[in-house]
């Protein structure tokens, strides 16, 4: 599966990581160019470079990260042909279905191959994945990918509608995964495909609760037991490096000063008003215009005279705020690392309906008790 | 491959799929309780109130079957499917709490049990005597029957030793001892770290061996695990016991170093494996010296293996400072491999992320929280389960990059 060599070679599929949002696969083809907003590259530039290296562009416009594909990176980078499965669902399904080295697994449908690559990695060369896709063009594309990624020996891809025609294997697989619009139509076929010498497992992946209810009934009718249903999600958290919160005393002092300034201003206005009244009385209305031009200078005088009386900071400093506060300049606020859940996240993918199929007949058990407890009502 | 070939008794991936003597088996009792019992040769397995039976009844059986105990013998039970419940007009309008409804006395029930009457007949007798049973809704009747079954049934089920089941068992039993790793988080760790057959991984496991067991299971006992721990001697991993691996597999695949011996500039104090007098005096001394030599050879070999590096991934669930751990062990990772750190607390991973993102050889450190919701899906009664685990904990994932970079401008 993909290259296991330390260095990139011609013909390798690599993952070009530009940003978290811009991750893409690239088939290394000598003679071809790779251009992006992070610069200009020639494919041959990548040959011989160890996987996991940062590569600078030819035109100095930036750099890219050269990564070895993994099923998880492939899920982030793959060309979407359908809605795909993501990490949280894939991991949980793999765990519940007990998919491991050597497992024989059925998957329908193949879709964009996100789940297929993960299963192929986990089962390895001693396991086998039977993948079914009813859309012919999608099946062809997926088959090409499986060959390019070196998993064609692990995955057998069949173009067929499994709800109508069933699977190609019988009494053979350890687990079945159904990602179909009507999984209930494939449940009996799945039962046929599962091995009967030990307990086996099934998972149906459906976005709607109505589908779940129909699936549960079909599973129950077919004799599956331990039916459970889950939803699983990943909540990404964003880490931010932010100033530590200031102590309350800080804002209390600030508010006190603002209040003081406001009071100072009010008293000044009263003083100005009575002064103006006196002047008006003195000089009469015709002198009014001249008196107003003098007001601004009088205001400054006022400050000089009355500053000591109020023991307040000048009005101007209240407007500028804390940027000029000498204590702030001397000690910049400490920073802390804080995390919050990302504001926009995937809220639902699908419901995962799981069940076990426990074989009724077992060659090693001599006696099989009838449905003793179940009929006891 | 045909069906007959695939139906081999031994499981794939190094795991045993049938019960043998020496296995530690999980038993699920009718009331939901799970017990872990070692199946020893010629022993009697006692499941308390449920009953007891001879161990050899179980050996050779595939894991995951249900049985009923009948006079110390086991009878396999058919798998039970769900029964549809017919809606009636009954409500709890006329049922009051605290009313005397069960004339059947405790002594009478005990006498029934002693006479060997089947659990289903005891329940039937109780229902017949129950004053208000007929007033109950069908759902309530179903709940009543299930409650009584849990009490009187002589049945049990063996639990398949899948890593999912073992994680669930430990999570319910004592989640602190597995550092609160829930099965969904564990599965994400395995996928994020790209654990696969044949891979080589460095594992830091202060979670009773859950992480080591999970990686072992995922590589299918084919590959290599280097476990770094804080113990002077190789640690006992209680979770690993439930996997029932052959000892030979473990010695081949799993090696351990402690934080001191994993340090490159530390020289372990090895007990001399040469005789002090220059010659071996006795056979016993020779054996002792040989053992010493192989122990120290193994330690030095494991150290060399770590320092040679190029491992395929680092998985951490530890009580120690995660930044120190990542800085100490990431040099031994190959380029483009994954670092996965688990914590039940968010703050340590927040700080770890903030520090790692300033260092160029860690690509895109990101923090995620696992969310899981379980539903009851009984016919006509589908809803999320009422009590659930609050959080699956947090994971940090980053990709290791090589420090050097090729710059085409220079």
UniProtKB/TrEMBL annotation, chain A:
<comment type="function">
    <text>Catalytic subunit of tRNA (adenine-N(1)-)-methyltransferase, which catalyzes the formation of N(1)-methyladenine at position 58 (m1A58) in initiator methionyl-tRNA.</text>
</comment>
<protein>
    <recommendedName>
        <fullName>tRNA (adenine(58)-N(1))-methyltransferase catalytic subunit TRM61</fullName>
        <ecNumber>2.1.1.220</ecNumber>
    </recommendedName>
</protein>
<feature type="region of interest" description="Disordered">
    <location>
        <begin position="270"/>
        <end position="309"/>
    </location>
</feature>
<dbReference type="GO" id="GO:0005634">
    <property type="term" value="C:nucleus"/>
</dbReference>
<feature type="binding site">
    <location>
        <position position="179"/>
    </location>
    <ligand>
        <name>S-adenosyl-L-methionine</name>
    </ligand>
</feature>
<keyword id="KW-0808">Transferase</keyword>
<feature type="binding site">
    <location>
        <position position="133"/>
    </location>
    <ligand>
        <name>S-adenosyl-L-methionine</name>
    </ligand>
</feature>
<dbReference type="GO" id="GO:0031515">
    <property type="term" value="C:tRNA (m1A) methyltransferase complex"/>
</dbReference>
<dbReference type="InterPro" id="IPR029063">
    <property type="entry name" value="SAM-dependent_MTases_sf"/>
</dbReference>
<keyword id="KW-0819">tRNA processing</keyword>
<keyword id="KW-0949">S-adenosyl-L-methionine</keyword>
<dbReference type="InterPro" id="IPR049470">
    <property type="entry name" value="TRM61_C"/>
</dbReference>
<comment type="similarity">
    <text>Belongs to the class I-like SAM-binding methyltransferase superfamily. TRM61 family.</text>
</comment>
<dbReference type="GO" id="GO:0030488">
    <property type="term" value="P:tRNA methylation"/>
</dbReference>
<dbReference type="InterPro" id="IPR014816">
    <property type="entry name" value="tRNA_MeTrfase_Gcd14"/>
</dbReference>
<feature type="compositionally biased region" description="Basic and acidic residues">
    <location>
        <begin position="277"/>
        <end position="295"/>
    </location>
</feature>
<keyword id="KW-0489">Methyltransferase</keyword>
<dbReference type="GO" id="GO:0160107">
    <property type="term" value="F:tRNA (adenine(58)-N1)-methyltransferase activity"/>
</dbReference>
<feature type="domain" description="tRNA (adenine(58)-N(1))-methyltransferase catalytic subunit TRM61 C-terminal">
    <location>
        <begin position="62"/>
        <end position="356"/>
    </location>
</feature>
<dbReference type="Pfam" id="PF08704">
    <property type="entry name" value="GCD14"/>
</dbReference>
<keyword id="KW-0539">Nucleus</keyword>
UniProtKB/TrEMBL annotation, chain B:
<dbReference type="InterPro" id="IPR017423">
    <property type="entry name" value="TRM6"/>
</dbReference>
<comment type="similarity">
    <text>Belongs to the TRM6/GCD10 family.</text>
</comment>
<keyword id="KW-0539">Nucleus</keyword>
<dbReference type="Pfam" id="PF04189">
    <property type="entry name" value="Gcd10p"/>
</dbReference>
<dbReference type="GO" id="GO:0030488">
    <property type="term" value="P:tRNA methylation"/>
</dbReference>
<dbReference type="GO" id="GO:0031515">
    <property type="term" value="C:tRNA (m1A) methyltransferase complex"/>
</dbReference>
<keyword id="KW-0819">tRNA processing</keyword>
<dbReference type="GO" id="GO:0005634">
    <property type="term" value="C:nucleus"/>
</dbReference>
<protein>
    <recommendedName>
        <fullName>tRNA (adenine(58)-N(1))-methyltransferase non-catalytic subunit TRM6</fullName>
    </recommendedName>
</protein>
């Amino acid at each position: 599966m993909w290259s296991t060599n330390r260095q990139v070679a011609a013909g390798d599929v690599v993952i070009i990581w530009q940003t978290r949002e811009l991750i893409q696969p690239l088939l290394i083809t000598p003679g071809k160019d790779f251009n992006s907003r992070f610069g200009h590259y020639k494919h041959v530039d990548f040959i011989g470079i160890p996987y996991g290296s940062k590569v600078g562009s030819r035109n100095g416009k930036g750099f890219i990260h050269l990564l070895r594909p993994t099923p998880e990176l492939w899920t982030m980078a793959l060309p979407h042909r359908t809605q795909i499965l993501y990490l949280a669902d894939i991991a949980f399904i793999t765990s519940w279905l007990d998919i491991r080295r050597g497992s024989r697994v059925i998957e329908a449908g193949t879709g964009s191959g996100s789940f297929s690559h993960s299963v192929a990695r986990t089962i390895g060369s001693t396991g086998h994945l039977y993948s079914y896709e009813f859309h012919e063009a999608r099946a062809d594309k997926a088959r090409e990918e499986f060959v390019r990624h070196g998993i064609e020996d692990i995955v057998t891809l069949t173009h067929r509608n499994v709800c109508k025609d069933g699977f190609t294997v019988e009494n053979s697989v350890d687990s079945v995964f159904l990602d179909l619009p009507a999984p209930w139509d494939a449940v009996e076929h799945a039962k046929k495909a599962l091995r009967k010498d030990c307990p086996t497992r099934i998972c149906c992946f459906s976005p709607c609760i109505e589908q779940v209810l129909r699936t549960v009934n079909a599973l129950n009718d077919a004799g599956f037991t331990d039916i459970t249903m889950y939803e699983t999600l990943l909540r990404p958290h964003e880490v931010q490096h932010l100033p530590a919160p200031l102590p309350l005393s800080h804002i209390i002092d600030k508010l006190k000063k603002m209040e003081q300034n406001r009071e100072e201003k009010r008293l000044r206005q009263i003083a100005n008003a009575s002064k103006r009244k006196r002047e008006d009385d003195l000089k009469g209305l015709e002198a009014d215009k001249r008196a107003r031009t003098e007001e601004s200078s009088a205001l400054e005088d006022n400050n000089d005279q009355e500053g000591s009386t109020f023991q307040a900071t000048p009005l101007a400093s209240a407007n500028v705020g804390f940027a000029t506060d000498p204590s702030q300049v001397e000690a910049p606020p400490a920073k802390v690392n804080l995390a919050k859940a990302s504001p926009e996240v995937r809220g639902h993918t699908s419901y995962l309906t799981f069940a076990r199929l426990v074989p009724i007949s077992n060659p090693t058990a001599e006696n099989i008790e009838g449905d003793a407890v179940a009929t006891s009502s | 491959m045909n069906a007959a070939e695939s139906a081999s008794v031994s499981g794939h991936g190094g795991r045993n799929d049938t019960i043998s003597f020496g296995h530690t088996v999980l038993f699920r009792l009718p009331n939901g309780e799970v017990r872990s019992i070692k199946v020893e040769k010629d022993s009697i397995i006692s499941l308390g109130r449920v009953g007891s039976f001879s161990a050899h009844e179980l050996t050779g059986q595939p894991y995951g079957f249900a049985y009923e105990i009948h006079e110390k013998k086991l009878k396999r039970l058919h798998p039970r499917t769900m029964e549809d419940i017919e809606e009636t007009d009954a409500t709890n309008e006329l049922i009051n709490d605290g009313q005397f409804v069960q004339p059947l006395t405790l002594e009478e029930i005990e006498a029934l049990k002693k006479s060997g009457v089947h659990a289903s007949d005891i329940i039937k007798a109780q229902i017949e005597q129950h004053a208000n049973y007929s007033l109950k809704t069908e759902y309530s009747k179903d709940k009543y029957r299930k409650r009584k079954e849990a009490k009187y049934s002589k049945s049990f089920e063996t639990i398949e030793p899948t890593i999912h089941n073992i994680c669930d068992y430990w999570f319910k039993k004592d989640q602190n001892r597995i550092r609160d790793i829930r099965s969904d988080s564990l599965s994400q760790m395995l996928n994020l770290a790209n654990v696969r057959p044949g891979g080589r991984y460095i594992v830091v496991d202060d979670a009773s061996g859950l992480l080591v067991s999970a990686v072992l299971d995922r590589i299918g006992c084919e590959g290599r695990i280097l476990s770094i721990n804080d113990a002077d001697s190789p640690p006992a991993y209680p979770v690993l016991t439930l996997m029932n691996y052959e000892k030979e597999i473990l010695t081949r695949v799993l090696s351990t170093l402690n934080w001191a011996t994993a340090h490159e500039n530390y020289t372990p104090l090895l007990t001399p494996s040469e005789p002090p007098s220059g010659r071996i005096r006795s056979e016993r001394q020779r054996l002792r010296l040989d053992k010493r030599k192989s122990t120290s050879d193994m330690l030095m070999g494991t150290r060399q293996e770590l320092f040679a590096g190029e491992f395929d991934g680092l998985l951490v669930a530890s009580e120690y400072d995660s930044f120190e751990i990542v800085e100490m062990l990431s040099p031994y990772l190959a380029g483009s491999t994954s670092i996965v750190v688990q914590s039940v607390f968010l703050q340590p991973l927040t700080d770890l992320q903030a520090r790692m993102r300033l260092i160029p050889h860690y690509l895109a450190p990101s923090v995620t929280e696992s969310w899981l919701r379980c539903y009851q899906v009984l016919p006509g009664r589908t809803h999320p389960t009422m009590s659930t685990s609050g959080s699956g904990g947090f994971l940090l994932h980053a990709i290791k990059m090589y420090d050097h970079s090729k710059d085409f401008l220079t």
